[in-house]
Specification:
isomerase; Anthranilate synthase; 399 residues; nine-stranded antiparallel sheet; alpha+beta
Amino acid sequence: MNDIFRGMLELKAEHMLASVGEGTPFFFASPEETMLAEGHFATVPAAANLQELSALVEAELQKAVEAGHPDPVVVGAIPFDVGQPASLIIPEKVLRAGPLSRYVELPGLSAKTEVEAACEVRPVPTPQVYAAGVQEAVERIRQGELSKVVLARTLELEAAQPIDLQGLLRKLAQSNSRGYTFAVSINDRQGALVGASPELLLSRHGNQIRSNPLAGSAARTRDLQENMRRSQALLLSEKDLHEHKMVADAVVQALTPYCRSLYAPAGPSLVNTETMLHLASDIRGELADPSVSSLQLASSMHPTPAVCGYPFAAAREMIAEIEPFERGLYAGMVGWCDAHGNGEWVVTLRCAEVSGKQVRLFAGAGVVADSDPAHELAETGAKFRTMLNALGIANVGEA
């Protein structure tokens, strides 16, 4: 019976994916469940900061309950720059199922996403300019301005044909089954934010909370022995361990005031994705006050040093000075929160903005005093591979 029930859940999840289009408000697949939003009930108004946004979300959910909505859930994405507007709505309905199967294919669900090799690619900034920005950051970190900053770059692609959103999500889910595959309609323009994040910012189910921060990375190869060597080197790297500790400590510091108990491991473990090796800390706790929502908890940590730097204000200022583009929803958070405060929010990584034939990919790397510009450039190239592989594009992003 268990196998039959599991098969029914997988089939429903596959059908949910098969109905995703560019106008779909929200699709979210975690290792435990799949969610699909349908229709539009209300839009969460713009807010000046995350504290105000959390209050507005709570108010909109309460209004939806009073208006007779049977199960209101806020879904969507929040940008890196908390002063910019979020893309959050309450849909008419949220369908839920078990996790997506990596193997089941349905008629009508295309797995073809290949983009022609001749597609136009424009890096912003150029690799040379990005490396120079990393070098500038290293010098300023050594002068004592800050301890860490995360610098990102983008790839702007234009394909010959519109991107197959369903096929793209399918490949992302198949290749990153331990992560979080998502598609979010962007409020202020056409298109969707699509990605496969490996990093759980915060989940809350009842009084139990969990965060799984990642920091300290190395590119994964197809050679098993080389991956083992890189894994051991990462676990022993003083530079990467220092970078990870900064992030894990910041998460613990943010969550401690809300928790009756909180457990954080003494040191990081290793998490593998299709393209990367990451240092990770599995942090779990029990809430002292059950009225605190998942969004409030996630907001208390956002943005973490894993996507911004430390101290926050100095890192945010340096990002604005060096990066020649607006991050938008990249390095923000994407997820959901229901009227009971339960929810799940992941860091918006390994993602791209997709609109018709156009795709804009994002990738960043943490810069500390011991960083090497060539290494950080190569790391962003490796991180691009999650989306590039799903798009069927080779030999782009490493340079």
